[in-house]
Amino acid sequence: MKLNRLHEQRGIAAVTVLMVTAVTALAGASVLFAATAELDIGARDRRAEDAFAAAEAGLDQAAAYLFAHPSAFSDIADPGPKERCLNNSLVVDTPDIPCEVNVTSPTDGELFYPPTGDKPFIQYDVLSTAREGGAATRALASRFRLVPKEVPYGMYIKGNVDLGGGPQLLQISMLVDGVVTSREKIDTDADGDGNAFNDPDLGWRFHEDKITSDPPPNVTCSDDTGFVGCVGVFSNFQIYEKTAKASNEIHGPLGDIPPASSKFPNDRDSHQTFVDESNVSHPVVRLPETDVLEAMEGLKQIAKSQGNYFNYKDGTNENVVVQPSTVGAPAKDFAKDAVFYIEADAGDTIKWRPSLIPDSTTSDIRYINPDGQKVGSHSGVIVVRGGELELEANTQWFGALFAPENEVRLLGTNTCTCTIYAKGFEKQGGNATVQLIPEWFGQLPAGFFSVEREAFVECEPFQESALCPSA
After folding, report:
1. Over the stretch 254-309, which tens digit does the pLDDT of each residue have?
2. Burial of 140 (0-12, 13-18, 19+ CB in 10 A)
3. Helix (H) or strand (E) holding 53
4. Long-range contacts, stretch 355-358, CB < 8 angstroms, 24+ apart
5. CA-based nearest residue to 161, from 317, 295, 296, 285
6. Under a CB-based contact definition with an 8 Å cutoff, are residues 357 and 327 in contact?
7. Whole-model pTM?
8. Residue boundaries of the structural domains of the chain
9. What does the DSSP assignment read for 331-376?
């Protein structure tokens, strides 16, 4: 009996061990399954977070691109809706995501002038899509508004102006915080009708608020899009013919002044300083010196990113001749919107010779357009800090010239379809032209706008948003 009882106890023990082993194995399997599931969930969460971060980086990339290329669609000739696709370097190329950063525009990439009279702007919509792993996909969308900075949309001169060389000033006004001499040398007859005072200043909408005079500037001139101001010379000090003699002083029309004093009816000088209702005098022009200088740092960064930054500050005064080869032309592939930033000593003169002619194969500054052709870049900004900037004879330029601490000088025959900001301006010899044309506003220079994010949304299934693609 004892032996049988012993066998029974051994059998029960074996069953118990098996049951304990099974329970332990099941518990272990459950723990392992739970741990594996948590790891999978954690991995998916991390991939989703990584995809979100990569998509957000795509939006930042688009903002930087629009700052450097405000007229992003200006080289797209195809009719209909326009778009740009940017490659997000943080995202692995995926066949079913053909456009990682998609840029479109409700204003078709062009300036929109609000009927309220507020500042014009360009709007861009950006959709950034990123995938991490096989299924973690995030799509983020933003709307950006590009608003013009306080940079020149005309000629802004913070010092004296000598016009003895006789430049043409076509569809662009000169705003001067200094004395203007040899005013009679300017030709402002852009349309060639023999009337030098009926041509519009195309930059007027940007700087009308910077001119206050009594009588007010002439606003009867117009272009195809509405009324703008007539081209004129506006100065806080005297405007003279030839030399600074009182007998040669020129004024715009004022009351019953004889016609002889109205030779240049759109000009204003300090004798027409505006006095408001509180009897407070205002200068004829107000030039945005501080705001313009704030724009310089952005232009410097663009120039560095494009390999167009030069430093000639060595403590000696010298003439620096910038030939096409100096900036790498014609071999170099420049940006569509090029920026050149030059540091110089106060006594340096930067003699600029490369030409920029949009879409022309004769341009020195050229880029690869969407058709694979190497043609003239669409705009170019030249910034000279400290030294003087000379645009040499036979040079053509399209964009902007900055010499905030010194003078801009035009030598010989050249054409600058551009805006200018400088501490002084001088024209010597030849037949130089400084002008604005409608195409200039469609190919706006880099760095001329601040990029503001207006909207942000994550595109998810069943979530309606004008910025997200329809399902």
Report:
1. 544 444 456 788 899 988 888 888 998 889 999 988 899 999 999 999 999 999 99
2. buried
3. helix 2-68
4. 355/395, 355/396, 355/397, 356/380, 356/396, 356/397, 356/398, 356/399, 357/396, 357/398, 358/398, 358/439, 358/443
5. 285
6. no
7. 0.87
8. 1-149+452-471, 155-451
9. TS---SEEEEEEE--TT-EEEE-----TT-TT-SSEEE-TTS-EEE
